[in-house]
Amino acid sequence: MLTFEVNEFIERIDEMLRLVLEEGETIEITNRGEIIARMEQVRKQRQADTRGHSATWNDLERISAEISAYWPEGLSAVDAVRDVRREL
């Protein structure tokens, strides 16, 4: 992480943008030693799942079946959570 006073940042803004965009650098901007801003590369957000609701439900059913294979018979999810909370 690099730190620059606001005056220097303004004078060298093109260089600062290049550092952020091309090298992934994070830059803190200060005014009289106090941090007033931070410039960092924006990470692209993940694309939304476009497979639809049925695919999501299928995934949940598959996960449920995997968990059920190892779940102790007669133990409710509520009881399992309570047991874990008691251990804390």
Notes on the protein architecture:
The protein is an alpha+beta fold and 88 residues long. It has a domain at 2-39. It contains four helices and three strands; from the N terminus they run βααββαα. It has helices at 6-11, 13-23, 53-70, 77-87, and strands spanning 2-5, 27-31, 34-39. The longest helix has 18 residues, at 53-70. It is elongated, with a radius of gyration of 25 Å. It starts with a strand and ends with a helix.
Low-confidence parts, pLDDT < 50 over ≥5 residues?
none
**Radius of gyration based on Cα positions:** 25 Å
How much β-strand is present in the residues? Answer: 15-25%
Order of helices and strands: EHHEEHH
By DSSP (H or I, 4+ residues per run), the number of helices equals: 4
Please describe the biggest sheet, giving its number of strands, its sense, and whether it closes into a barrel.
3 strands, mixed
Distance between the termini: 38 Å
How many β-strands, per DSSP? 3
Mean pLDDT: 88
Range of helix content: 40-55%
- Decide which structural class fits the backbone: alpha+beta
User: What spatial order of strands do you see in the largest sheet?
Assistant: 1-2-3
Q: What is the oligomeric state here?
A: single chain
Principal-axis shape: elongated
